[in-house]
Design goal:
By secondary structure, the protein is α+β, with helices and mostly antiparallel strands. It has helices at 64-75, 99-115, 123-134, 140-145, 182-187, 195-213, 219-222, 229-232, 237-248, 270-282; strands spanning 3-16, 25-40, 45-51, 82-89, 148-154, 157-163, 170-175, 253-255, 262-266, 288-291, 300-303, 307-308. The radius of gyration is 19 Å and the shape is globular. It starts with a strand and ends with a strand. Bound molecules: L-homoserine (HSE). The site of L-homoserine has 13 residues, from helix 5.
Length: 309
């Protein structure tokens, strides 16, 4: 079958919120979805998926990567071609590590690569397109740009600021077998919070930027939250119990994104093994421990014929 163009895309996992920074902060982590996307010169759609969540991911036009590519083409006023997509998913699926944000980002970057030379996209446009699909920018910003990101929506749409994390910060992600629905998690939060709780999270979020960039010894205080984790605890009791046990032992543990994984921000690589051992001892749930690095590059797209785009 004649092919028009093939691009290769790699997108990191992300952990959003980081405790107090609800819908705002995100961190890119060194586990990846990798896709090869080929534009075809007919309207066929072929999708192969291997890796995390493969059994549950649709192989038709409802596929989130396909919908994201289609969204970018429509926004650019171009007709989406037929596609062949081969995905190897390393980002744990439905565990609070940004798997849907990674799929959206992969689609947006694939479309950018397939349209290169015809349509140019600024970073702000890529973030706008991804946020339109994802609903909030805190996962797609680090998936696109890497590092620690602050994301917000200004008058001209979603914006981000990328920051680099202190080299002493060592992330550990504890991944349970069960999944969690972000929609369910969001439905458990009240529409209003007290001024006291709002001020609590403002202070911890500000402190968290300092802790992640300069002062990892402040991470425990800086990762406290009153806006989302307690409200969602009833839907993931093992996660809540583990976060409490780790924090009581001095580890800066938070719910990763909407859960149910737990992110532990250790202030040195040595703490990660101790945190994993504590996790294995305090709950009946098995936790897979991923000792990851902060990804500083973010998502990439490479034209298979011509090099990076
Ligand atoms: N900020 C989002 C939430 C991240 O916690 O609902 C998950 O998509």
């Amino acid at each position: 079958m004649p092919e028009v163009r093939t691009v290769q895309v790699r997108v990191p996992a992300t952990s959003a919120n980081l405790g107090p920074g609800f819908d705002t902060l995100g961190l890119a982590l060194s586990v990846y979805d990798e896709l090869t996307v080929t534009a075809l010169d007919d309207d066929r759609l072929e999708i192969e998926v291997a890796g995390s969540g493969a059994a549950d991911i649709p192989r038709d036009e409802s596929n989130l990567v396909v919908r994201s590519i289609e969204h970018v083409y429509a926004d650019a006023g171009r007709e989406m071609p037929g596609l062949r997509i081969e995905a190897r998913n390393g980002v744990p699926h439905g565990r609070g590590l940004g798997s849907s944000g990674a799929a959206v980002t992969a689609g947006v970057l694939a479309a950018k690569g397939l349209l290169a030379g015809d349509v140019d996209f600024s970073d702000a446009e890529l973030l706008r397109l991804a946020t339109e699909l994802e609903g909030h920018p805190d996962n797609v910003a680090p998936a696109l740009f890497g590092g620690l990101t602050i994301a917000w929506t200004g008058e001209s749409g979603p914006q981000h600021k990328k920051l680099l994390v202190h080299r002493g910060v060592a992330p550990l992600v504890l991944v349970p077998e069960r999944t969690m629905s972000t929609t369910l998690a969001r439905s458990l939060q009240p529409p209003q919070v007290s001024r006291e709780d709002a001020v609590f999270n403002v202070s911890r979020t500000a402190l968290l930027i300092a802790a992640l960039m300069q002062s990892p010894e402040l991470l425990l205080d800086a990762t406290a939250d009153r806006l989302h984790q307690d409200y969602r605890a009833e839907a993931m009791p093992e996660t809540s119990a583990l976060v409490q046990a780790l924090r009581a032992a001095g580890f800066a543990a938070v719910v990763s994104g909407a859960g149910p994984s737990v992110l532990v921000l250790c202030d040195g690589p040595g703490g990660r093994q101790a945190a994993k051992e504590l996790a294995d001892s305090v709950t009946d749930t098995p936790w897979e421990g991923l000792m990851l690095a902060v990804d500083v590059r973010g998502g990439t797209v490479r034209d298979r014929a011509e090099g990076s785009t």
